[in-house]
Records
---
Amino acid sequence: MTERARLSARIAAIAESATLKVDAKAKALQAEGRPVISYAAGEPDFATPEHIVEAALAATRDPKNYRYTPAAGLPELREAIAAKTARDSGLEASASQVVVTNGGKQAVYQAFQVLLDPGDEVLVPAPYWTTYPEAIKLAGGTQVDVFAGSDQGYLVTVEQLEAARTERTKVLLFVSPSNPTGAVYPPEQVKAIGEWALEHGIWVVADEIYQNLTYGALDSGVGSAAPRAVSIVEAVPGLADQTILVNGVAKTYAMTGWRLGWMVGPADVIKGAANLQSHLSSNVSNISQRAAIAALAGPQEPVEAMRQAFDRRRRLIVDELSKIDGMIVPVPEGAFYVYPDVTGLLGREWGGVTPTTSLELADLVLEQAEVAAVPGEAFGPSGFLRFSYALGDEPLLEGVQRLQRLFG
Ligand SMILES: Cc1ncc(COP(=O)(O)O)c(C=O)c1O
């Protein structure tokens, strides 16, 4: 008998989510009784707003929600998503151009499954969210990194994209606001990148899951009105026929556990994604879909209250991290992450240890300061730490003070 590998090569090549791994390690230490403060999780710490929870409770009592529904989602929710897309992304799409997915993560996966053939290249601005490489790989695509460091505010330029473009380039991944950097592309740069993609017939997968979490300049007041994260299809309407928008309720409405996202795109691509989903997971839980209708069509004041709280915490963590000699802290304008460049801390001795990579630095910080942050290696190049500021003001400050003492 020929010897066969137990796992397929495809699955053996996938790594566990690095962010979830750090979070799990922090939680395990907490369970041992160690007072670890974790900046690792990528989720709001707020409760889901009450009116959304009420809608879900009512949905559990309504027998019409007990059955399978169309794989692409409830018609009412697809309508609400189309309206939200027009409002926030400036794209007039019909409900038939929407597929409701099990979180934005499934939308990312399906977008690449629908677009990529083996060997197709995807330009991925780095640092990037840890799931993209695996989703691209699983679709047979080849990832081509385009790195933008802290010196350019983590924003790639058209010149860099053009230098990375080949005949095999099929897709550009565009994420603004970004996880892990919190960077938001200014409108003129969005337009320039969109025009470049249009000119070269390059598809865009635009992940807009943080689009409602943007903040004003530091010299404006806490919670001040923020510049919008302009959608690439709003900046360049001609791109609509070659763009898939990915989004979801998780981050904006504190609904990570409800598992509800979506993709919006041209009819043929959306049909392909709905066909795939009909064999993969069918419809998303109707209870979550009803809750999402309440989220998108209901009052938005709770979102504004959370945005203001994030803004306050953002200012606090940026101020405090900036006091650490050796950290460069670009001011994030969106999402709920700050992504300091920590190369200035590497190669130096701290408490008897000399870290040379951000992975080693993250281990050191966890061991010696009982602070969990995700190392840059989870998002591409070494030399960075990601701190989520989606945690209460008190632990937020306490954790950074521990770092100030360690690196003082
Ligand atoms: C950039 C980005 N896109 C998509 C997602 C997916 O979110 P979810 O699957 O919870 O909707 C996340 C979650 O961390 C994210 O950070």
---
Amino acid sequence: MRVFQVENDWSMDNVRLTTRPDPVPGPGQVRVGMRAAALNYRDLLVPRRGYGSRMKALPLIMLSDGVGVVDRIGEGVKHLSVGDRVCPLFFQTWVDGPPTKPRLAQSLGSEVDGTMADFMVLPELGVAPAPAHLDAVEAACLGTAAVTAWRALVSEGGIEQDDTVLIQGTGGVSLFALQFAKLRGARTIVISSSDEKLSRVRRLGADETINYRKVPEWGRRAREIAGADGIDHVVDVGGQTTLPQSLRAIRVGGTISLIGVLGGGAMDVPLGPVVTRHVRLQGITVGCRADFVQMAAAMATHALKPVIDRVFAFTELRAALDHLAGGSHFGKIGITH
Ligand SMILES: NC(=O)c1ccc[n+]([C@@H]2O[C@H](COP(=O)([O-])OP(=O)(O)OC[C@H]3O[C@@H](n4cnc5c(N)ncnc54)[C@H](OP(=O)(O)O)[C@@H]3O)[C@@H](O)[C@H]2O)c1
């Protein structure tokens, strides 16, 4: 089978197309013939060993998102059949319940091989049914960014109708957050570096928008727009550079979901307001199988589809990663087999 893997040494230059023997499912496992994959910001960090010593020894098959069709079943598999269309799950052993160290120990495309292969062999509970209303590339986009946004806002965040949610950026996580916030009846404020992207998010239903390059004090502006005491929930993907403004924007007792550190990973904020204003800083690392299943059901009920920026061929992974690194994308970048 074809695979795209990091080989020999940790570097983007060593992300290469090669072949491996077709895998065979063991007891409790299924083999999935992969149809599509999708990129996440994380895939720019993986080739540089961005997740440290816990990562699998090389070679490592790239990417965490994908979709495929079950083509072989191992002994003892109970709930899946040949022909079922499934998405591999980001965390292979986090089925349900709260996060624990063992449940977070096996993520695709980091601790274990990822989705950039013609076939994957995975435990039965390491996959979940793909929503039927989505085509292959759309279904491939859900595993990481969509589950993260769902867990931040719904499973952990518990957002409610008429809450005001502030969403940073227009990448994968952010546009799913916008869609899920709208689904729950929340009012949304999106910030972006680009006026053109902001007009596109308004067409997707964003209620208010702010260009964070033109309005560096966007936290104060967002708080004014929210009225009352401020924002109920912030989806923070910037970390060090955005957290001070997120704290400006948040209401007493509000929640900031810390998801990404695009602007740096150090904590450089006055902590007094966190204490005195009862702010909940909530770290999120994707989510579990139950989150995926619940989110996929909601997307199917409301015929919700991911926003796809561009689709590349399997052999064009390096070009797709360059496109992601360029930052001009709006939503998800897909790969077809
Ligand atoms: N914790 C988790 O479970 C989890 C899961 C998925 C992703 N992440 C992290 O979340 C972040 C986003 O991931 P992604 O895959 O959605 O990336 P992405 O598709 O590349 O989107 C990133 C977007 O963030 C915006 N952005 C960049 N720098 C920013 C800044 N300093 N302030 C505000 N917005 C900024 C940009 O939007 P504009 O172009 O509109 O300005 C950019 O398009 C990454 O750090 C990633 O590692 C974490």
